[in-house]
Amino acid sequence: MIEKASTKTKRILITGANSYIGNAFTQYATSMRPAYQIEKLSLRNIDWDQVDLQGVDAILHCAGIAHNATKTSDTDQYFAVNQGLTDRMARLARQAGVPHFIYMSSMIVYGNTSRSGEINLDTPLTPENAYGQSKLAGEEALNKLAGDDFKVTIIRAPMVYGLHSKGNYPLLAKFSRLSPIFPEFDNKRSMIYIENLAELICQVIDQQIEGIIHPQNQDYVSTANLVHEIAKQHDKKIYLTSIFNGVIRLMIKYPLIQKVFGDRYYSKDLSAWPYDSYQVCSFEESIRRTEQQ
C-alpha cells in the first residue's frame, strides 16, 4: 500500500530558475504540498556549483536548452547543457548526499515527426536532432550514477500545456481563435496538462519513485478536438469538416503535416501508474484554465 504524502518538511531544489515546468510546479506545490521548502538555482550563475546541497531531499532538474532552437550549429551547446550540466549537477548532488534526482526529459528521445504512431515498451530510442540526442545523453549519464543511495527518476513528458505554456499549443490556440474552419481528422496525441504533471512530480518526491516515467492525460487527444475545445472557451464557433482528410492523408509524411495531424502517443501499458492518480484536472477543465487570459 502506498503511503500518503508526508507532512514532514522536504527541501526541494529546482534547477532552471526560469523554466516553465519549474515555475508551474512551484506554484502548484506551494498550494498542494505546504510542507515543501522550494528553492531555485540558475545554472547560468558562474558560481552555481558552489551551492550548498546539504539537507536537500530532492532535486528537480529542469535546466536545459529546449527544442525551439534546432540548428546544427547549436549541437555542441545542446550537449554541453543537456548532458554536461546534467551530469555535473547530479555528481554534485550524489557527493552531497542528496537522495533523489528527478530529470525532466521528453518524448522526443523516441524521435521527432518521423516517429509516428504508438510508442510502447518495444519502441526504440531514435532521437533525430541535437535536442533529442542530448536529452537521451543526459538520461544515460544519470543512469550511470543511479544507485541505492541516489535514486534517479526520468520523466519523459509528451507535449506539456497550461497557462502561459510555450511550444505548439499557443500556435494552435491562436489558430482556433482566428479560423472559422478546421479539418476533422482523427488522430491520437499524448499530452499532459501542467497541473497533472506537477501532481505526478509531487508523488514522485513523496514516495521517492525511481525509474523512467511516461506521463500523459487520462485520454488521448485529437488535434481537431483540441482546436474545438479551445474555440469553445472563447465562445467561438469553429466548423470541423472532413473535406480535407484525403489531402492530409496524402501529405501526412511531410513534417509539418505530421506534426499537426500525425499520431504520436504513449501506449496505456507504457504510461501505467500504480500509485494514486495524478489526474487532478479533466481535459475540458484543463483547457478552460489554460485559456483564462
Automatic annotation (TrEMBL):
Span of domain NAD-dependent epimerase/dehydratase: 12-207
InterPro entries in the record: Epimerase_deHydtase, Lipid_A_modif_metabolic_enz, NAD(P)-bd_dom_sf
SUPFAM superfamilies recorded: NAD(P)-binding Rossmann-fold domains
Specify the protein name: UDP-glucose 4-epimerase
